């Protein structure tokens, strides 16, 4: 290969390229799929953490009491709440599902251990994630959101 | 004639097979081959002990010296373009490029500039390792200062390796499947991080390599690619490619092409 060795050509190209973004994503379809999956995983994950947090507060439990009630490691509960990349163990998710009285397979999807194939499920998770930002006291709206979402999980 | 002494060699099957294969290929006896190997080893040792370097010409052919622009001085600096891309190069992009792209993307998102966020930052090169072995693919990398500055994947055979411009419709072209420039060289990203881009003209050099590869493949410089919206101005204005149209089969991305004349114009800068 014989590359252009003219410094003037190089400078001209550099000037033309200067403000440009250079990339080609030939596999853009795969990329978009990955991005959608990542976004969906984030929404589900937020819904899972908020569900856990609201349920704990609904029962007026500290994290320590909550971990004892669930019979799961306190450190794992803290990891779930604080580290969005952390994947809980299936046992923990099952225990949480039993406590909340919701189907375990739904919580497996929410927690990121399994993938959803249901658009309504994804949308509901997104709505719940958006409505349930934890605050100190459980507001009536949060209470309503929690009730509604638990009902949704149980019905489907 | 020097006196000869006898020695028994204990070789594994693999070593003996190699010895037999080499002696057959060189058409010499196994003893003669070992003598040659010994002389070669002696010569290499003597030259290395004099501080000389050992290199293989073929390896040099796989690398070429090019110039890129150092933004700090505005002057050309010598870099290396190579086509022996390995999985390590992809891992390098994952480890050193991705965190910077992610950090810059978060900054852009925080400022509300969502449309500027690079759309391919989730592209995971490490899963593409099997493609390295496909002969119809060609890979190029640019290295300077011990760091990878840009990476490109070309396809010479495949569904997109055919021209769409009416005047050359159906003719073979080289398809640019992937190009990426290191994030520290992209003003959009460095600005988001409050830094200055380091080197320039990396993208132009990679597209130049694509055109040269097209010539090698007897495609006369014909090159095609799908451009993401944020990169269209580079291919239109900096490279002088022809926009052919949106491709519904590829998320309505803009398909651009070089004719042989346009490719030559780009190579020579005769615009």
Please specify the SSE layout and strand pairing.
The complex is a heterodimer of chains A (156) and B (271).
Chain A: H1 7-17, E1 23-25, H2 28-58, H3 63-70, H4 74-82, H5 90-100, H6 104-110, H7 119-131, H8 140-155
Chain B: H1 13-26, H2 30-49, H3 57-61, E1 63-70, E2 75-82, H4 87-110, E3 137-144, E4 147-155, E5 174-181, H5 187-192, E6 199-200, H6 202-216, E7 223-227, H7 232-238, E8 242-247, E9 253-257, H8 260-268
Parallel strand pairs in B: 5-7
Antiparallel strand pairs in B: 1-2, 1-6, 2-3, 3-4, 4-5, 7-9, 8-9
Helix pairs in contact in B: 1-2
Structure description:
- The complex is a heterodimer of chains A (156) and B (271).
- Chain A is built from 8 helices and 1 strand.
- Chain A has one domain: 434 Repressor (Amino-terminal Domain) (Orthogonal Bundle).
- Chain A has helices at residues 7-17, 28-58, 63-70, 74-82, 90-100, 104-110, 119-131, 140-155, and one strand at residues 23-25.
- With 156 residues, chain A is mainly α.
- Helices cover 68% and strands 2% of the residues of chain A.
- With 271 residues, chain B is α+β, with helices and mostly antiparallel strands.
- Chain B folds into 2 domains: 13-49; 64-268, Aminopeptidase.
- Chain B is 37% helix and 22% strand.
- Chain B has 8 helices and 9 strands.
- Chain B has a 9-stranded mixed beta sheet, with helices on both faces.
- Chain B is elongated, with a radius of gyration of 24 Å.
- Classes of the chains: A mainly alpha (156), B alpha+beta (271).
- Chains A and B meet through helix 1, strand 1 and helix 2 of A and strand 1, strand 5, helix 6, strand 7 and helix 7 of B.
- Strand 1 (23-25) of chain A pairs antiparallel with strand 5 of chain B, so a sheet runs across the interface.
